[in-house]
Amino acid sequence: MRMIRLGMGNAPLDTLAHYSGLGLALGIGLLVGIERGWQERDLQTGARVAGIRTFALIGLLGGVWGALFPIVGGVAVGFAAFAFAIGLTVFEWRESVKDNSLSATDLIAGLVTFALGVLAVLGNKPAAAAAGVVVTGLLALRHPLHTFLRTLTWPELRSALLLLAMTVVLLPVLPDRNIDPWDTINPHRIWLITVAIAALSFVGYVAVRLAGARRGLLLAGAAGALVSSTAVTLTYSRLAKAEPKVAHEAGVAIAASWIVSLIRMATVAVVLAPVLLKSLLPAVAAAVLVLIAAAFGLDRAGQHDGAPSKLDLENPVELGMAIRFGLLLGLVTVVSKLFAAQIGQLSLLPLAAVTGLADVDPITLSVAQMVPHQVTVAVAAMAILIAAAANGVTKLSLAFSFAPGRVSQVLGGAGVLAILAGVAAAIFVRLP
Asked: What does DSSP assign to residue 163?
């Protein structure tokens, strides 16, 4: 009678909810079971311990106990889950002894599948479905993950942990307000941008690490620009001089790094201040087109009989580098706002020229955050473009100093033309 009373009222709706929950629980089990069965597809019939049917039933079992929760209560469901865990553990232990294996993957996968089956009925269905996909993905990535661990170096692991510490440990405790007498420095915001730049650099490093030398200098140079286009210019200029057989390929990589650097700079600025898009796009696009033409010309003239050499970038997420960038960003932010408030907005332009010789990021991040309250769109765009031009002069100097004659001439000419094209485009569109 109790069961009948519980089912009264909105019976069709309750039934539909149970059907959808149980169906999702079964689907999660099937998904995990397909992956487990695929991993053991080469074993003979009867030798596979748990596959599609087993995990599908485990998911459905969890869903059934979830559906029984309103009737039998949480204690009974807890005891059922405990009994299932004990039984599965004993079974997997006996199988591991028999097969002389120490893997606990099937045990954990079974427990998680049961729990997700319960969640599919009692909890958030989209979360249960997403978790089922993630679990299956992790199980399917067994071999790539093991290969990754074998090739992972201590500096790379240390950098990843450092990036996580910067994000998860330090960022939440920094005050999200201006703390200086001039009302300019927000530690949380500055560190957030620092972490974002560090993460972007780490992505570039990983791309170079995974691509390898055989994927070509073009990909490595473009990915390396996420770390530092200046470092790519110096490294590949030396490579071109030391190994003439890949000089043109190195030149293409340098040009690619300059292109990616400009696009990256513009992207960061526009993300922080979308109104800068119309002002930056023509100049950046004009410069990029010139550099693309140079890269194409170098590629056509290149000799393709040499194997590309490896790009050796330093680990991008070093604590010292992160701290220096944060301090530089904070300093440029304070100086920029003080100059804009006390002397006038145009004082940012010589500051951009000086800081741009070393790096375009600090002035880009600083002025983009000041738009439109402290700095107009026109002045901000001019400052960013001046910093980019100054940084281009630095990279041109490196290419002239270290690259061999033909490559340095092409890069030098392309760099000068790119700067002139950017200036002409900026003047033509008349910055607002």
From this structure: H
